[in-house]
Every structure is written in C-alpha cells, then in structure tokens.
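Lab manual, section 2.4: Encoding a predicted structure.

Procedure: take the sequence of the chain (113 residues), apply the prediction step described in section 2.3, and record the output as structure tokens. A sample record is shown.
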Amino acid sequence: MARFITGIEIHPGAKIGRGLFIDHGMGVVIGETCEIGNDVLIYHEVTLGAVKSYDGKRHPTIGDNVIIGAGAKVLGDIKIASGTKIGANAVVIKSIEKPSIVVTEPAKVLKEL
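Recorded output:
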C-alpha cells in the first residue's frame, strides 16, 4: 500500500541509517540487501539494485553523507564511500573507494573530494 501511495519501494530487508531523506521520491527503489548510512540524500527515480539474482549480498552499501542525484542507478554488491556525490542519471557499477563526485554512464570519477 505504501508503494502505491508514495511511489517508493523499499524492501523490508534493507538496512537504513538515521537521517535518510528521499526528495521527490517517486520511482525510488531500494533492494533487499542494500545498506544505507546516516544522513543520505536520495532524489527521485534512483535505483539501489542488484545485477544478478543469487543468495547473499547483491545490493550496494552506501556510506554516510552521500548524495545520489535524480535517475542514478547504483547496482550490485559495491561500496560507495562516505561523502560521495553521484550525479543525475549516473550508472555506478564499481565501488567508489574515496569521497568523490561521480558522473556519466557508466559512472566515472570526475573529482576526488
């Protein structure tokens, strides 16, 4: 029912830290094994999803103070460093080890912070 009303789909198995803010949440999807740190900002149409169907960890781990721009896709069992900014419509399929600005498809580190 909540998905129908809000347009946001969060799997009950996802681990979410304090202060998650979903701005204009329509179309946000957060997968079952996703882990989200504290004070994360997610804009509309963001997917934190898997690339394969198998048992175990298959969704991303998002650090603290991360911003994920509108339409971005963060896929697979990868880690996003705390303080990273992911640009709109970026497709992130590799871990981001240091705080960075990440853009394009597939995502590239524009600048380490």
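Check your result against the sample. Helices lie at 2-6.
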